[in-house]
Write a structure and sequence with these properties.
Oligomer: single chain
Distance between the termini: 48 Å
Bound molecules: zinc ion
Largest sheet: 7 strands, parallel
CATH topology of the domain at 2-46 and 127-236 and 339-385 and 424-456: Rossmann fold
Radius of gyration: 25 Å
Length: 645
């Protein structure tokens, strides 16, 4: 079972990084006619060896060849891998990890950097020539397999004519400053080529760090109109920290949920993983590391990814003297760019560049760092916001610090009370999507519409402009199956008008039946037609009864349990987090500034503490809790059938 799961995981990871995306349909004339430049995510640009005459030779990196090479390497290393796999059955994943690491080193060895932070071999990405990498000409000029971020291009070309989309090619092994300089050259070329005086930037992940660095260094030139930095690695990624320090602890359930979101899997497998001890995945990864570090350990970009607060710690993992050149460059980046990035982005906005950030929140980092994140990029680094430790939230009555925005009329505290955006790089222009995974902006209609409006219009000048696009909102990725909200209250809040709760079936495949709706932190009941089967996309309304206390900045949550008819894993639940906003602020206890993010599940109230602990250790608490909620919902409904009883 374990091995099956690990093979399944490996296949899914490969599929998910290859990228899948939803189709958009509406086109509007109101969109900006500036050219759009896609600044791609990490590893998305193919790389080639450079021949003696300067022409591009053999392709040495790209997802298209990785799959081929993997198959080839698998055949070659099969005896080694097999011996690793046999040992795995005896309880050790060491040999398998080492074999995979060695295979990676052999396969990708030409991509290594030296201690000066330079490529050992002469390697380059595709030429950044607008007449070659215009979206509609790309396939003609290059092999169609060489598109970077092709799913993003395919989504954007529903809104922008293909001849106005340009693909920026990146040697992602180099740092953000190197690539920001290349981006500046490319923007100038695209302006010349199109005859336009400005461009729009759509930057993803590593591309977000490159674009932010570009804005820091070249923003004053005024060459950019709208810049959307989505799931951006502005403040780095804890994945780099986990990899370079070897402190890996794979979060398999998070990883699987990530994959479900990427592939629109409407089946839920992550619950299965919670009951499987999968420590062997860590053993494989940890033993793969030496091989992987031979290839990528000195990449400037990996060092640029180190979060500012952890940067110096990682020096002890390398020979500082031999790596002096690399460390000088990445230290300069951390001290001069990363440390001042908020100020630079705000200066760009003051000078008329519409910079916006769209970030995912609410997930752990897949490689083990316990940071509130989109699974890859910690939310505090992506946005500059003050974020409570993962699993915690700010206590009731918390007041935003106001580091950047001190306007008392603005509420920059997330309804989940985990994020204080008043000290973000851009408090008025940062959108947080709770539950959205890394790189999944175009995998749901809500985030796609948000990103497209920010990229192609000026109809969202800030987070206060349109109640349909509030600063904080939960993801609508259909892998979550349901989306719940109070109809007449601002998104994320419960107030005196919260009289109707609506639940939407996000599935495009399955009919859904709501089994129970349960409020935590409040005495609320949700009355409605639980028996009804909701068609894909359909919503059901529930009348909210009970007492909403006359208090503000207090936390509540609503958990919806449901059955997805016909799904392989039909029963599941989703919790939505709210702030009560109905009177005087709750008293803030400065002695206890943090509280647990999640309420104690109702089942814990009826079980003894040792039993709860045993269930938690076995990874079964969530599962048992879900069934308890389902039964509770059933009992309540029976009670409603016989109101006199
Ligand atoms: Zn503000």
């Amino acid at each position: 079972m374990k091995k099956l799961l690990s093979v399944f995981l490996a296949v899914c990871i490969l599929l998910s990084v290859c990228g899948f995306s939803a189709a958009a349909e509406d086109t509007a004339d109101a969109y900006s006619d500036y050219p759009v430049i896609i600044v791609p995510g990490y590893g998305a640009s193919p790389l080639f060896s450079v021949n003696g005459d300067g022409s591009l030779g053999e392709q040495v990196w790209g997802w298209n060849i990785i799959m081929d090479r993997l198959t080839e390497q698998l055949k070659k290393s099969f005896p080694e891998l097999l011996s690793g796999a046999v040992t795995l059955t005896l309880g050790s994943a060491k040999e398998l990890g080492e074999a995979l690491g060695n295979a990676a080193a052999e396969m990708l060895g030409t991509l290594a950097f030296n201690g000066d932070g330079e490529s050992v071999y002469n390697i380059a990405p595709l030429p950044n020539d607008p007449s070659l990498c215009r979206w509609d000409l790309f396939e003609e000029n290059f092999d169609g397999d060489l598109y970077s971020e092709k799913e993003i291009g395919r989504t954007l070309d529903d809104y922008v004519p293909e001849d106005r989309i340009f693909n920026f090619a990146v040697d992602f092994r180099y740092g953000a400053q190197y690539n920001a300089e290349k981006l500046d050259e490319f923007i100038c070329r695209v302006k010349d080529y199109t005859g336009k005086d400005k461009v729009n930037l759509y930057a993803v992940s590593h591309g977000g760090q490159v674009a932010a660095t570009y804005l820091h260094r070249y923003g004053d030139k005024g060459d950019v109109y709208n810049a959307v930095l989505t799931v951006p690695a502005i403040g780095g990624s804890y994945v780099a920290y986990d990899v370079l320090t070897g402190s890996l602890a794979a979060q398999e359930d998070e990883l699987l949920l990530f994959i479900e979101n990427a592939l629109y899997l409407e089946q839920d497998f992550e619950m299965l993983l919670k009951t499987q001890p999968l420590g062997f995945v860590d053993d494989i990864l940890i033993n793969m590391l030496p091989g992987l570090k031979q290839v990528a350990g000195l990449w400037e970009s990996l060092w640029d990814f180190l979060p500012y607060e952890r940067y110096r710690e990682v020096f002890s993992t390398v020979d500082e003297e031999a790596c002096a050149g690399l460390l000088a460059k990445t230290t300069e980046f951390h001290e001069n760019v990363m440390a001042n990035i908020g100020e630079s982005l705000r200066r760009c906005r003051e000078n008329g560049i519409n910079v916006s950030i769209v970030a995912g929140t609410g997930n752990a980092i897949v490689t083990g760092s316990q940071q509130n994140s989109d699974a890859i990029i910690h939310t505090s680094g992506a946005t500059g916001a003050k974020v409570a430790p993962l699993g915690k939230r700010f206590a009731n009555g918390y007041i935003c610090e106001g580091g950047v925005c001190g306007d008392p009329a603005h509420d920059h505290l997330s309804p989940s009370m985990e994020i204080d955006a008043s000290c973000a790089y851009l408090p008025e222009n940062t959108w947080f999507v709770d539950g959205m995974f890394h790189g999944m902006t175009f995998n749901e209609d809500y985030a796609e519409e948000l990103a497209v409006r920010l990229l192609l219009t000026d109809t969202l000048p800030d987070v206060h402009a349109d109640p349909a696009f509030p600063q904080f909102r939960a993801s609508e990725n259909r892998a979550y199956a349901v989306y719940g909200s109070f109809v007449d209250s601002p998104s994320g809040y419960i107030d005196k008008d919260s009289a109707v709760y609506t639940v939407k079936n996000l599935s495009e495949e399955y009919e859904l039946r709501i089994l129970s709706i349960y409020a935590d932190g409040l005495d609320l009941r949700f009355e409605g037609d639980y028996g009804r089967l909701l068609a894909p996309g359909e919503s059901a309304d529930f009348r909210v009864t009970g007492r909403i206390p006359a208090v503000s900045t207090a936390r509540a949550a609503v958990t919806v349990t449901f059955r997805l008819k016909g799904s392989y894993t039909p029963y599941n639940h989703r919790t939505f987090r709210y702030t009560v906003n109905n009177g005087a602020p709750a008293r803030y206890d400065a002695e206890n500034p943090l509280a647990d993010r999640d309420f104690t599940p109702p089942v814990a109230a009826v079980l003894s503490e040792p039993v709860v602990n045993i269930l938690q250790k076995a990874g079964l608490l969530e599962f048992v809790s879900m069934w308890f909620n389902i039964l509770l919902g059933l009992l309540m409904r029976i009670k409603n059938l016989f109101p006199a009883a």
